[in-house]
Amino acid sequence: MSRKIASKKGRREAAGGGEADEALYVYCIGAQEKLAGNFEGELPTPIESKGPAKFVLIEGDGLAAVATRVPLSEYNEEALETKLRDATWMATRALRHEAVVEHFAHRASVVPLRFGTIYTGRASVEQMLGERGAQLRAIIARLEGREEWGVNVYGERAKLKDEVARLSPRLREMVERAEASTPGQAYLLRKKIDALRDDEVRAVTRRIVAGMESALAAVSVGEVRLRLLKDESNDRGELAAKLAFLVPRDGFDEFRAAAERLAAEYAPLGFSIELTGPWPPYNFASEDENAEGERGGKGKRGKGE
């Protein structure tokens, strides 16, 4: 990740004619003509809500970046690193960042930038748009008319274990042997049955998730398997997989129908599907292509966040 920081020096040398005590917080990038008409009416709260923090559109080479001015005293390297350890501050600003990106992503094809993307002045943003223009335009073209949708696959482990024991010939044979054995032999066999059942559950889960991913990839134009955190479970069961798909807006009904068919097909084995979105397409604007600013942002979702 880029670590070019808006440092204390930037307070004295803010580039591009910006105020010396201000920096630019950048949310997303899109085609200038598509973004320009989206500043009328009610707008979301910017990253900092105090004072007259208005959104600005910084243009360059046919592209434009959505930004607001923020106090450099709070967004230089030292101050921001401290604030990122404040859970309340971080949660509030992350939600504001997300709301702004979603507002513009619902109205135009944009490259969403990660939380904490800071530039010390307007000229720095214009320079980035010029240097990365070809890459950014390619991403914007790929995302045109498309949205990111999340698919969470949950499994009820106890139900699947019961079904695996019923469907597996090997497990059924071992259960029958245990029932006909002496207590000591039955105990050892049951230990083996439990271990084998756990192995079967993991193998079946992998096969089912792979099948779901393949089926949904067939009705989308891109897919990413996201990293699972520990203990991600709820009343639906254990989270078996977290997937992201890039879906054409006019093809969403087909995508949703495919997800519903998969949910119905695998419900008897204890699996369910949660569909989330639409999200700004963070997972389809790669890190190499994404402008990270002079202070690299924190990634999302996982949806990257």
Detailed description of the structure:
This protein has two domains: 8-132, no CATH class; 147-283, Alpha-Beta Plaits (2-Layer Sandwich), CATH 3.30.70. The longest helix has 35 residues, at 183-217. The protein is of the alpha+beta class. 34% of the residues are buried. β2 and β3 form a beta hairpin. It is 43% helix and 22% strand. The protein is elongated, with a radius of gyration of 25 Å. α9 (169-179) packs antiparallel against α10 (183-217) and α10 (183-217) runs antiparallel to α11. It has helices at residues 8-12, 32-35, 72-75, 77-83, 87-105, 122-131, 133-143, 157-167, 169-179, 183-217, 252-266, and strands at 22-31, 55-60, 63-71, 110-112, 118-119, 146-155, 222-225, 233-234, 237-248, 271-279. The protein has eleven helices and ten strands. The strands form two sheets. Strands 1, 2, 3, 4 and 5 form a five-stranded antiparallel beta sheet that branches. Strands 6, 7, 8, 9 and 10 form a five-stranded antiparallel beta sheet that branches.
Descriptive terms for the model:
single chain; 305 residues; alpha+beta; Alpha-Beta Plaits; 2 domains; five-stranded antiparallel β-sheet; 11 helices; 22% strand; elongated; disordered N terminus
Helix content: 40-55%
Tally of DSSP β-strands: 10
Can you write the helix and strand succession as a string?
HEHEEHHHEEHHEHHHEEEHE
Oligomeric assembly: single chain
Query: Mean pLDDT, nearest integer?
Result: 82
CATH class of the largest domain: Alpha Beta
Structural class, judged by helices and strands? alpha+beta
CATH architecture of the largest domain: 2-Layer Sandwich
| Mass-distribution shape | elongated
Percentage of residues in strands: 15-25%
Q: Uncertain regions: pLDDT < 50 for 5+ in a row?
A: 1-19, 287-305
Report Rg.
Answer: 25 Å
Number of domains: 2
Question: Could you give the distance between the termini?
Answer: 16 Å
Main sheet makeup: 5 strands, antiparallel
